[in-house]
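Need the bound structure for adenosine-5'-diphosphate, inputs here:
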Amino acid sequence: MNARSAAGKRLRTLPLRGQIFMTFALFILLMLALLWLFQTVLLKPMYESVRRQELRRVASVLTRCADSDGLQEEADRLALHTNICISVYEISGQYASRRAQSHILAGCLIHNVSSETMMNRLYAGASRESFYTERIRDSVLAGEDAEAEVPESLLAACLAHTDAGRTLLIVLDAEIEPVGSTTDTLRVQLGIVTGILILLAALLAVLLSGRIARPVVQMSREAEKLAVGSYDVHFEESGSRETAQLGEALNYAAGELAQLDSMQKELIANISHDLRTPLTMISGYSEVMRDIPGEMTPENMQIIIDETERLTALVNDILDLSRLSGGNRTLSCETICLTDTVRSTLDRYAKLRTHDGYTITFTCDRDAYIYADKSKILQVLYNLVNNAINYTGEDKTVTIRQICADGNCRIEVTDTGEGIPPEQLSKIWDRYYKVKNYYKRAVTGTGLGLSIVKSILLLHGAQFGVTSEVGHGSTFWFSLPEVPPPEKTEQPQR
Ligand code: ADP
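Answer from helper R.:
Posting the output first, comments after.
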């Protein structure tokens, strides 16, 4: 993606703060819409359903106390309490006589216009249905003024049979429109609540979105700095748990990157230094041999050859590592004699033993075979033995042991040097790593050897490790499964 399209995309997508704000605002709008729906459109139907239930309850209470003397008292109490007009008739044959009544509503239909037709209609309804109801808006009460506000009423009638064998007709009247002033008050309140909610929502959305987005915005700013190679960054570990964890992980990654960067710089300095020393020697000795007669000696030639070998080894190390970490991970494995491989590695150091007084011992009880890439195992052994020689103590002793047990063959390389502090043990396998403040830094290594060893052993699926005691020395080891020796009959054919 090029820079321009990335910038375009960034513009098109809403920033995190905006997205949180929008989501929050939408949620609040939805809540307000719901509130308005209930307070306006659904208010009347819900009120009607509540009143219906109240009518049923009043009818059943009246039926229960129909035989008692307190019927009128109960009717008054209920009417007052529920704002329902009540008439109770006793039916005997064709006649109906009023047993109780309570008149509470000014525009009540059953008391103001109790025409016979209406009573007959209610009686017929009650005979048909156990609880008969009808909605009615009385135009008689409204009079000539058709515009006048007459509340809609719900008339209810039911026939009740008492324990004493009486038949009662209970007629009830309840207004089913919420009182105008109440609904008006509700509407005004709703308007005020809506205003307050919108203000609060906007404030909360700004605050919340800022709180959530701030750490992310800060992190992205720091990450941009990191991307251009500035490691002096700090990611905030605040906000939600996830952003705090992200900040922690990024701080760790930035720390590691900074360490890697400084190691790489140190490596380049080391390599430049290591390359320059043998090159200076080679050019110096070559010039001397060219210009001064009699200096063309085998000793001087040997110095040039030794320095060339040092150069080659260094360049090989760098190449090996870049191959191993660059995806070139093919091994050409075969059954090899590990014991012989160790012996041939140690042969390289024969000169060191005789000239420099090193004691390099190798102990093994038998020849052991493994399935591995011989050249790579040689590299491992060479690096481990080389380190042991470089870092061993004054007694110049290095011990190599071969231990075969439980189907595995283990090689241990032990020196008597200063050892490695425990906190650095796990890091020495890292590329470019060198133990800090090593008291005797006569050895100028590249910090690549153990990283090459680790890559090779991991490719082989080998187990490996190091134990070290400061002041007493270190033991580096690796272990691979032992395999049977190859068939001897193959040898004559070659
Ligand atoms: P180098 O080329 O610096 O030896 P290595 O990767 O082989 O690089 O080793 C990494 C670091 O581990 C070394 O710089 C050294 O500090 C430490 N180290 C390796 N082997 C030994 C050892 N046998 N004794 C003490 N320190 C060791």
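Comments: Confidence is low (pLDDT under 50) at residues 142-147. Residues 383, 387-388, 391, 415, 417, 420, 428, 433-435, 438, 445-451, 474 surround adenosine-5'-diphosphate (CB under 6 Å).
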